[in-house]
Write a structure and sequence with these properties.
mainly beta, single chain, two-stranded antiparallel sheet
C-alpha cells in the first residue's frame, strides 16, 4: 500500500537496538502523499513519496 508510484520506494525492515543492546524488528515507512498529478496527459490521483515531489519528478495537476 505505502509505495511510491515513481520510484517504487516501499516499507523496508531493520532492527531496533536499545541502549542495553536488545534487538527487535522495526519498519521504516516512506513519507507517502496522495497527490493529483498529470500521468500520460490526464490528471489522476497517485501515491508519491515526498522525495520525488521535491525533486520535480512529478507534475502536479
Amino acid at each position: 500500500m505505502a509505495k511510491c508510484f515513481v520510484c517504487n520506494k516501499a516499507v523496508s525492515f531493520g532492527i531496533k537496538v536499545s541502549h542495553s543492546h536488545r534487538r527487535s524488528n522495526r519498519t521504516f515507512k516512506p513519507n507517502i502523499r496522495r497527490v493529483k498529478a498529470i500521468v500520460e496527459g490526464a490528471p489522476v490521483h497517485i501515491n508519491v513519496c515526498t522525495r520525488c515531489l521535491r525533486s520535480g519528478k512529478v507534475v502536479r495537476a
